[in-house]
Amino acid sequence: MSKTFKIGGVHPHDSKFSRNCAIEVLPLPQTVYISMAQHLGAPAVPCVAVGDKVKAGQVIAEPAPRALSAYVHSSVSGTVKSIGPRKDIAGNNQNHIEILVEGDEWAEGIDLSTDLVTTIPTDRAEVLKKIQMGGVVGLGGATFPAHVKLNPPAGSKAECLILNGAECEPFLTSDNRIMIERSKEIVVGAAIMQMVLGGCPCVIGIEENKPEAIAAMNKAVSELGYPGISVMVLMKKYPQGGEKQLINAVMGREVGSGALPISAGAVVQNVATSLAVYEAVQKNKPLVTNTMTITGDCLPVEKQHNYLFRIGMPLSWIAEYAGGVPEGAAKVVSGGPMMGRAISNLDACTVKGSSSLLYLSEKTTKRAAQSNCIRCGKCAEACPMGLEPFLLNKLAKNGMMDELEANAVQDCISCGCCQFSCPACIPLLDTINIAKGQVLGILRARAAAAKAAAEAAKASQK
Amino acid sequence: MNKLLVSPSPHVHTSVSTQSLMRDVVIAMLPAALVSVLFYGWSEILILAVSVISCVGLEYLISKFLLKRPATICDLSAVVTGVLLALNVPPTCPWWVIVIGAIFAIGVAKMTFGGLGQNMFNPAIAGRVFLLVSFPTYMTDWTVPAGFIHATDAVSGATLLGAYAEGGVEAIKGINYLQTLFFNIGGSAGEISACALLVGFVYLLVRKVIRPHITLSIWGTVAVLALIFWAINPAKYPDPIFALLTGGVLLGSIFMATDYVTSPMSAKGGIIFGVGIGLLTVLIRYFGSYPEGVSFAILIMNATVPLINKYCHQKKYGRK
Amino acid sequence: MTSAIIWTIVILTVLGVVLAMVLFLVAKKFKVEEDPRIDEVEKVMPGANCGGCGFAGCRAFAQSCVEAGNLDKNFCPVGGNDTMKKVAAVLGIEAVAKAPMVAVVRCNGTCQNRPTTNEYDGLKSCRVKASLYSGDTGCAFGCLGCGDCVAACQFGAISMNPETGLPVVDEEKCTACGKCAAACPKQVIEIRLKGPRNMRLYVSCINKDKGPVAKKACAAACIGCGICAKTCTHGAITVENNVAYIDPAKCKLCRECEAMCPTEAIHAVNFPKPLDKDAVKARIAERNKKAKEAAAAAAEAAKAAAPAAPEKKEEPKNE
Hints:
With 462 residues, chain A is α/β, with parallel strands linked by helices. Chain A has 14 helices and 17 strands.
């Protein structure tokens, strides 16, 4: 019996049509636009000027000072044409660096060969530095800078590194493909992260609907023979790949409300992040490429692809290369159908965390008219955090902040299970997300006030 | 190309809808309805038709002309109420009594509160109880009309529960439980065949329309209480199997207590709700003046649902 | 039979008297002493309990007024100056009159001016829409059209115009309580001075994009060209972040900016006569010509006075 998390969850059809499409390398476009906001935290600050010649893998933006941020590298060689605002997939302006592509020359010191480097370095600080300089961020969706997550604060100890290969979102197959095609690199990356975290065991969690990936990863683990790495088969259930759910499934523990996973002794990294760590540490290659799936329910299987893309490629260009936006597509989503973001601007560019171009037909995605809540409780049954979305929805509509906080709206992980399962098609998550933002704001303000009061008390004591 | 749709996630939706859930409930009631038609014949067909048509028609008229908003009959909830009401009345019930029941069920118990999802009491039960207290003669006339198959010689008589209430344990001696499981002539249409009801129950569980908590806790409570009474005084009280298989326990626990709108949301709440119904049912049967208490028990427990919902929550992740 | 009736009457009467006594005593014992002026102030309040003043309701407002003893920080936008005069009378102080305000929708992105580029399929709420993306038009700043302001208004003063897809403020009903402005996630609505005889000029756009981008998204966008600021002789217009703003305190309602605006982004309301654009334009041209001549003359004079001095730029600002 494969393992899974205990509370809630839903079973959308997994629709992994592109599971057997081998990863293809995309050619280079004429121009790339590299966003400065590709990670959680403050946007990076450009450190090149218009007219500069850059090489692929060269740093073009540095982390914003004194803030959570990350390095950004050029993904191509060429000339910087402009630096300025450009619209992202949601139509909001972000600072972008526009680079005209000339040839494909990589910066010095980057190992482009496919030889596997299996020797694990032992200098922890050096490795962390390399991960940071490589601009590695979490590729599971949140794009949290990896070096921060791999460096737990003093006093907390990682007891288990969990590699997230669940890929529980329907349609997406990029993680599945890299686990099949680049399994050894992923395992070496895991071993590196194990070393950084002080030698804790590592569990690679994969959902049971990916038997080829499970076999490939098992083979890589046994062939490479690093100690303490194992593959765990997980049940196919959404959101198995949610950080908190994965910790529950693998370790049987729960992360406290408002706490970080490290408080439960866990560090979770995506398999794609592990691959990026391998390349940054062993090959000196910064994070400028990633794998994305071109898929959808209105796209014939022969037109579906898994592409190795470089950051900054316009989505419209990729769509065109893959054969254009299909006729029946009503919505294009970046990411999976449960948590991905609908794209309003196809001229936006790929970022580090891009994982798909998902074409959904009107029949699949158009929301049906909402009707009365019939109090069936299916939303509460589905919620993997054990919340009661029907109640939160009602409280949010009436602006009852205290009750929302008491009913733990701030614990919501926005997985969408409630809205997915609502037979009355009530847009529960739309309302709850807003309420969650408001309550989190109240909590932050309260924490800041408490901190200020404590400091004032300290000062007056002196 | 058309303009792209943009919305917050999730971008896909389950195929389950209010309509499909209600359709499943209707399908689950079909075996019981079929059995009742077989045994009670044309009069039962008339009852079913009158009940469903008047429930659906009333909901349409009320939402269209009184509330002035789009009619919600497509969600099939009025059909469910109609079939349930038909299964809850004796086969000899005149058609106008059923229409009055439908008016009360849909007009008062459902639409007054704002329609589907807003009502406090299960409309079908409210309708049945209203008829029971208003037209006791019609509602307890257990004459068996001519059916399509003739199972027994009995042409009139009380229900088994009625017989027990009248004559005590002596009156029900020698009944064949195996036969009761399949058909049990006398009683309202929905009470004929335990087997047909159980088939419906299994269907609802398999289709994940309901969770078993409420139904099982009702059965458990009724069985345990009946066992206790029977153990204390077998000469006065019937055995637990009799308590479970007769009257409206099965019909009520499977189709009426599990109504989404009027039952608690959480599993814990469902168990409390079920135990309450079981308890009240047995108390009314053994100590009340009515031979059957399931509908009253459900109606009373319906009123406690907001309170149960307030205090029963499921376990939250990462919290005690 | 008779005795039963008598007994019933007696018992019920006694019960009533006893309960009345209990109620009376409890009310006496637990009476909360309050400044009687709070009640008096509350009586003169509009009683809408809208919260536009920043308090939880009219009573909370009254309490605050009485406790503070002055009205410096308290103003009821609903009742306006009349109510505040009454409140001041209760408190025995002088009320300072405030100029009347009104909610102004600073967006003219009608369906014609601002074509949609995608179709929004989420919850019909500006707040949800704004948190998701820039909106279903090319403009990331303007009205989202889901009517959060309409829902926020307790006076029924805002409604959506189905033709333009924009909210319309009913000036008669608007109390300038500011609920709509707070509800708008794009800050499209401004609480603005109502102006003399309700006449006012305002820039009906807040698009901060550069001119061409803004213009492409919406035909009625302010493109930040600055012509209005140059035209204004009262220093009332500033252009910041590619968008102009008219300071209502400085504006003299001369409507010259309105005539000069190339995109008709400047709106004038409640003026008795329609604007004769050409006449105003001619007037401005004439004035500019004179100014130029005067400047040239001044430069000539300066040159003649100090031929040795290096060229000094002198701009005659005030004529």
